[in-house]
Amino acid sequence: MHLRGKRFEYNLVSETAQKPGDNGGESSPRFEPLLRVNYHFHWQMSYRLATPLHVAAGTELQAVAWFDNSRNNPHNPDPEAAVRWGEQTYDEMMVGFFDVAVDAHLDKKDFFVRH
User: Fold this and answer.
1) Which of 16, 43, 51, 58 could pair covalently with 30 via S-S, beta carbons 3.0-4.6 A apart?
2) CA–CA dist 106, 110 (Å, integer)
3) C-alpha span between 56 and 105 (Å, rounded)
């Protein structure tokens, strides 16, 4: 994100179990927030969880970002401009980086293969 960034969050998304006796009902996704911040261009730090988190197979990591291209954003270089993806500060982007720690006893090549 660049100058128009407003908010950023990471969520873990997993399926919740069906209720007992609910035959044919669909499960609904469960969202567990990991990070929610009000974004600022000069805030581009990394965050580490205080305690490592085991993530179950099938869990998805969701990155969500909000932008503010209005006149109310004092960092917005031009509220009238069409905004496109790009690496320059006057462009915008949204990239959510993350790291994964894998147990040293696991075969790394096999671990990252979808089954």
Assistant:
1) 16
2) 8
3) 17
Distance CA(112)–CA(115), nearest Å, equals 9
pTM recorded for the entire structure: 0.73
* 36-51 tens-digit pLDDT: 989 888 877 778 888 8
Q: How far is residue 22's CA from residue 89's CA, in Å, rounded to a whole number?
A: 51
DSSP letter for 32, please: E
C-alpha distances out from residue 78 to 39, 71, 73, 83, 85, Å: 18, 8, 10, 9, 15
> How is residue 80 written in tokens?
């009238």
State residue 18's pLDDT score: 53
